[in-house]
Amino acid sequence: MKKKSDATGKENAQRLPRHVGIIMDGNGRWARKRGKPRSLGHKEGLEAAKRVVKTAADIGLRYLSVFAFSTENWSRTEKEVSYLMFLVKKHLRAEYEFYKANNIRLVYSGDLTGLRRDIAADIRAATEETAHFQGLTLNIVLNYGGRDEIVRAVKRWRKAGQPPLTERNFYRYLDQPTMPDLDLLIRSGGEKRISNFLLWQSSYAELYFSDKLWPDWQGDDLREAIRDFQKRERRFGRVS
Ligand code: IPE
Ligand code: IPE
Ligand code: MG
Fold this sequence. Notes:
- The protein is an alpha/beta fold.
- It has a single domain, classed as Decaprenyl diphosphate synthase-like (Undecaprenyl pyrophosphate synthetase, 3-Layer(aba) Sandwich).
- Helices cover 37% and strands 14% of the residues.
- The chain contains seven helices and six strands, in the order βααβααβαβαββα.
- The protein has helices at residues 27-33, 38-59, 78-91, 96-101, 117-129, 146-159, 219-230; strands spanning 19-23, 63-70, 105-109, 137-144, 184-187, 206-209.
- The chain has a six-stranded parallel β-sheet with strand order 3-4-2-1-5-6, sandwiched between helices.
- α2 packs parallel to α3.
- The longest helix has 22 residues, at 38-59.
- The radius of gyration is 18 Å and the shape is globular.
- The two termini are 23 Å apart.
- Residues 24-29, 69, 73, 84, 189 line the site of one 3-methylbut-3-enyl trihydrogen diphosphate.
């Protein structure tokens, strides 16, 4: 059943999810519907990402993780993969003024070693250049797979001399050890699956699926997802 959206249109600033993750899906279908190449969908998808990130910063969200490229996405055509990498390369550092104006700090999740060397260097530079901004932390999730992250975490733990390991301290070996668990996981584009996104961090995330294709997303769609989240009762295994 479809829920009616909140008439006031305003989320409760006191009860914001601390960490929101978005699987930005539907770029290819958005383009196909218009008889355009998939690349145009990705280009428009990037514009949507900027709108939504800006809204997240305006709302006062602390952490936002956006899934930009999965370890599985390498199996797309070489043309599509290069276009996606071109977009990353073109925008990452060029958006410095946008990050500055919105006080956004960039961080990264994924396997940098599997990326082209110049792109990996740009990611490092962008995270360093924005490290002092204290508003929204924007986690770029790129060349990322949830299982891959867990395996890399275990390798870090091994390298650290295999100290006692518990469910509570395992996070230290993850890509972003200081980021809290996901509270709200959003997926656009109609599919109802996780597709290997932040597996460890989303164990108790509230899930929000939207049929709207990612390039059609506006800031208000994020606000609506947050309002939906604010109506839910999170029990974490307890009785209410
Ligand atoms: C999401 O859109 C963007 C990436 C995976 C990089 P898709 O490219 O998966 O678009 P659809 O799902 O084919 O419509
Ligand atoms: C998930 O979307 C990955 C990103 C949004 C970056 P996909 O389009 O790759 O996921 P599947 O293949 O439909 O599961
Ligand atoms: Mg897809």
